[in-house]
Amino acid sequence: MSTAIRAVELTRRFGDFTAVNRVSFEVEEGEVFGYLGANGAGKSTTIRMLCGLLAPSSGEATVAGHDVGAHPASVKSSIGYMSQKFSLYLDLPVGENLEFFGGAYGLSGRELRARIGEVLDRLELRGLERSPTGALPGGLRQRVALAGAILHRPRVVFLDEPTAGVDPVARRHFWRLIREMSGEGTTVFVTTHYLDEAEYCRRIGLMADGRLVALDTPAALKRAWVPEQVLVAHGRGLLGAAAALAGRPGVVAVEPFGAGLHLRVAPGRWEPAAVEAVLREAGAAEVAVETGEATLEDVFLAASGAAPAPEEGP
Amino acid sequence: MRARPARLAIRIGAMSAKEVLHIVRDPRTLVLAFVMPVVMLLLFGYGVSFDLDHLPLAVADADRTPASRALVDAFTRAGEFDLVERIAPEDAEDLFRRGRAFAALVVRPGYGRDLARGGRAEAALLVDGADSASASQVLQKADAIARAESLRRAAAAGALAAPPVEVRTWTRYNPEGRSAVFMVPGLTVYLMALGAVLLTALTVAGEWERGSMEQLFASPVGRIDIILGKLLPYLGLGLVQLLLVVAVGATAFDVPVRGSLPLLFAVGLAFLAGMLGQGLLISVVTKNQLVATQAGTLSSLLPSLLLSGMLFPIENMPRALQVLSRIIPARYFVHALRGILLKGSGAAELWPDLLALAIFAVGILAVATARFQRRIA
Q1: Which chain B residue shows the shortest CA-CA distance from A145?
Q2: Mean pLDDT value across residues B196-210
Q3: Is residue A106 within 8 angstroms of chain B, CB to CB?
Q4: CA-CA distance, B268 to B278, in Å (whole number)?
Q5: Choosing among B219, B225, B374, which should be mutated to test the A contact, i.e. which has the most A CBs within 10 A?
Q6: Considering Cα of B220, then B223, then B224, then B230, what sign does the dihedral take?
Q7: Which of A313, B183, B240, B270 measures 20 to 30 Å from A95, CA to CA?
Q8: Is the model's pTM score more than 0.80?
Q9: Which residue has the higher pLDDT, A291 or B175?
């Protein structure tokens, strides 16, 4: 397999602020690469540099074989980009939006119509050509936007928070389409802050304060960042009782997780029954504790907390 | 892979087609472009007239002779003045204050007797000077009426009383002195400037505001494609506007079109290109529709209204404003339009205007394009 995206020490500074700090990674062709991080961690800035929208302050990157810093224009015709803020002209119907985006990539006439038909089928949008884009629900709108971004058959697609504000069913559907695309060889670089979605990615890069703090498959990340045993507690009054566990020997972390508690404990030091006893004693009721799987949220919390302080710009 | 020029044409075509769709889908744009100019033209043409007639006139005739009645009759006969009230001479001021009359004709006792003796007879016309422009027009009219009356009397008396020197003025191009003929070229300029600057500023700032500009920059669409794609539809819109306004002027107000239409369009094109460039520059700098609207309105409305010579003759301006007006494109367009429409001037007379407009257009488009590039990062 060849490399679709390669970033080497990629850096972008805005004045004194370093938004992206010496980030290096490679994405293989046909891979779904998830780029995770809190707001302001540098995800969008990285994408903008890779799309040729923003010149790197230092470091370099190649996308689909083109050097981003030296030839941003040639990068643009081989990628598809869905920005976080804008996706479509809401005053134009779906068909006219697609015709415009096709034209923007130099498609016209019969070829343009054929491609539009192709993406409408592919993204299951047939029959919506005349619908006013502004009246579509968020999930459909994002699918139309994705259709616009892949009309010209780009080898690499950048999706910046494509599912923000989309309902869970539509999100799942959207991700099925993303995996289909990758199955056909398209490289997908996607940012999200839904950690459940990140499980769909083959590999994940974790950004914190402008640095890439972790990069691997979801399973490997869990093993590497959460070596402790994970215990999950359910019951009532857990939040008040959590303090009784924090700080005890062998307890690495106690974090609220949904309606329950996630504990990370040194392997072999705590049995579920022992935890249950402590929580009951501290006032919780109907407590049930079982061993759990580490989630990407655990990884995210561990990795973000361990991130080294951002370096000062030179 | 298609040849590069073909792809460029496709991209510009796609941008333009999209812009046309935006325009067609947004009735506000069409109203702003076509309905507003016609409404304003009719409003200005009919409602805002500088021609004064049927002015309310009060008469204080203390002489009450056939001669004095003839004088009053001379004033009211032509339709310039309407006799509203007969008063005593000392009441004139009170009448002005209450707004009942604009002028008062006072004929003293002995007017008829003096005339009969062949000497000088005097009558006084009191004018409300609060509106100085109207007052001076009234004085001119009164002067003409009085002169005509004295000539008539002299002729009737059979005397060789014709004045030794007579000045005859002959107004060319707008012989009736109609406001509409003077106003329509100016209004055309004003409306086109406002429309072109505002619409471009709105559409380009809209792309920044929506975030779609970033999406465009991530595609092979370059800034030249964006600028040409955005400007071409509005250039077309502006020319249709020009045609519409000239047509309405010709049909509703009998404004002539004495010069060549191709020249009219050439000058219009050069002016529009400059105004579109101005709108583009504003939107590239502000990147915000609200601010762009305000800046666009101010920067097109004020100069074209005040410094173009549309309302106030440039020759009467203070020296500093005269110099300033030289960089206002509207000034050249007003001059060229009046030349083409009213005088039938051709390229031989109007090339300096065309050149000035072209220089402005090229200059401001170059600045806007350069500025566009810098802001992308």
Answers
A1: B215
A2: 88
A3: yes
A4: 15
A5: B219
A6: positive
A7: B240
A8: no
A9: A291
